[in-house]
Amino acid sequence: MRQPVRLRLIMAGLLVAASAVPNLGNSINKFSSVLNFYRLAVVILALFTLIIYRGEVRISGRRSFVLWMGFLLAWLIYGVVLLGLSPYADINRGSRELFSILCGLFSFYILSNLRLTEEEIEKVFRVLFWVLVAMIILGFYEIITANHLSSSMFEDPENEVAWRVDPHSATGIMYNVNDFSALITLMLPVLIGRYRIRLRRTYIDPGWILIFCVVYINRVNDANTCNLAILFGMFLYVLFQVNYDRRKKGLLIAFALVAVALLLVLYFTNKESDGMLVSRTMELVKDSSEGHGSLHSRMILYRNAILAGWRSGFLGLGPGGFSTFYTENPEDTDLINPHSLLMEILSQYGLVILVLFLGLLIYLIRRMIRMYHEFEQEKIREWGRMGVIWIASYLITSFASSSYLPNSFHWTLIALICLMLETVRERYGFDAKGSISNDRMEGEFYEGLSSDKCASAGGYSDLS
Questions:
Q1: Residue ranges in the chain modelled with pLDDT below 70
Q2: CB-facing half-sphere around the CA of 281: CA atoms within 13 A
Q3: Phi, psi of 269 (to 5 degrees)
Q4: How far apart are the C-alpha atoms of 294 and 221, rounded to whole Å?
Q5: How far apart are CA 40 and CA 429, in angstroms?
Q6: Which of 144, 159, 229, 253 shows the smallest number of beta carbons within 10 Å?
Q7: Distance between CA 398 and CA 171 in Å, rounded?
Q8: Helices 5-20 and 409-428, axial angle in degrees (round to 10)
Q9: How much is the pLDDT for 300?
Q10: 202: three-class secondary structure by DSSP
Q11: CA 284/CA 280 separation, integer angstroms
Q12: CA–CA separation, 108 and 279 (whole Å)
């Protein structure tokens, strides 16, 4: 049974929008910390998908979806076992973590069954584009007015650190500044190539302007890790372009140097004066060497996470176990959250889950790189490049938030990457090893194309 186009788009658009605004509705009722907008939406969409297919789970043949859904299911079962057996597992916090993983599993199930076409996937990305634009506008409003939504840390009278943060910062629809910066940074790759404005004989991509807006918000929020992710993402973008078209090498390098220079000027500029300051990074390193500062605290946290993994035999302390363990066994920092997704997984769920998680991300990166190189179609190549930048940004920004597992958008992000891969594979015969199947080179691959549009090199055709 194939759903109508409009129904598929509504379901997919609602899923990505809900994933990007998880805290919306957190003040509705006393269960809001569990049943927020995202979790309600994803559960309802999963049930609706089951009803559409009369209870049939349809993931056969979609290799990347099968791998991720199998992994998340195994992770969920293992987490439930640890929740019951580990003395450090936190039943309340741990249940929310496991529910978030379950919602991630639902996200994969929903997007796998929708069977979106390339054009429909692009429309979903445009929904995400405008959600991000709305967040950027909200962020600037907060910075200018110091007014925030009710879900913000600045509106929480019990928050003990809010008074140390400049109220002219942006939390958006998230609780704290780091979570909001991580979210908008992670959404950035959808900005490039979604829209282009014609200016005389050339085209301007407004996405590049919006990137600098996000950099500014991150700078105000002092979210240096997120700006590092943006810089690295821009480096990867230029690297892909230079590798593909060496004729543009000089132009692309010049663009990269100008972009980096502008970012550095913005990064080095003090918010409270017009003068230039010593790099914030150098200040953090200096503070750390003197035994204080956020970098010093983070180094202690990462050491503690490895020690916690060691003490559990690298089996994991259990869901929510990091906070419980270091509340009962305090170290030389007041922070009791791991501040790193990788350390969070290692300390709470063990080494095997961490290795499988990283292995699946590497699998996606390799498939995306091969997809970029195997196709001449600009849109498919853009998807491959975007997927690699997305995953790289994901790994870097995951060090920004105090606790990353309860966040929602990153699961939908990975599911979208799987959706791009499987859509290309099913239409063009892009097999599991990343090459184009010869059986599919005729027929569907050339369907509707005139012979003069077929590329002479390698038998590829230009669909852009």
A1: 1-5, 23-35, 54-61, 160, 162, 243-296, 329-336, 430-464
A2: 8
A3: -80, 130
A4: 14
A5: 36
A6: 144
A7: 17
A8: 150
A9: 78
A10: strand
A11: 6
A12: 41
Q: What is the CA radius of gyration of the chain?
A: 23
Structure tokens given for 241:
């372009």
* Two structure tokens written together for 380: 């498919």
Residue 25: what residue type? G
Write the single-letter amino acid at 159: N
Phi/psi of residue 197, nearest 5 degrees: -105, 125
51-59, Cβ contacts within 8 angstroms, sequence gap of 24 or more: 52/1, 52/3, 52/113, 53/1, 53/113, 54/1, 57/109, 58/112, 58/113, 59/109, 59/112, 59/113
Q: What is the pLDDT of residue 439?
A: 45
Write the Ramachandran bin of 223: left for phi over 0, alpha for psi from -120 to 50, otherwise beta.
beta
Closest by CA position to 408, among listed 104, 181, 182:
104
Ramachandran region, residue 184 (left: φ > 0; alpha: ψ -120 to 50; beta: rest): alpha
> Tokens standing for 188?
């950035």
Q: What per-residue confidence (pLDDT) applies to 87?
A: 85
Residues 369-392 have pLDDT tens digits of 998 888 888 888 889 999 999 999
For 435-451, write each residue's pLDDT tens digit. Answer: 554 444 433 433 333 33
Which stretches within 245-350 are classed as H helix? 249-268, 280-289, 294-311, 321-328, 341-349
Tens-place pLDDT, residues 28-48: 444 445 567 888 889 899 988
The reported pTM is: 0.82
- Which amino acid, one-letter code, is at 309? G
Helix spans in 146-279 (H): 177-187, 207-220, 224-244, 249-268
Between CA 182 and CA 391 the distance in angstroms is: 13
| Cα distances (Å, whole numbers) of residue 404 to 273, 293, 379 | 33, 21, 31
pLDDT (0 to 100) of residue 402: 76
Q: Which amino acid, 283?
A: E
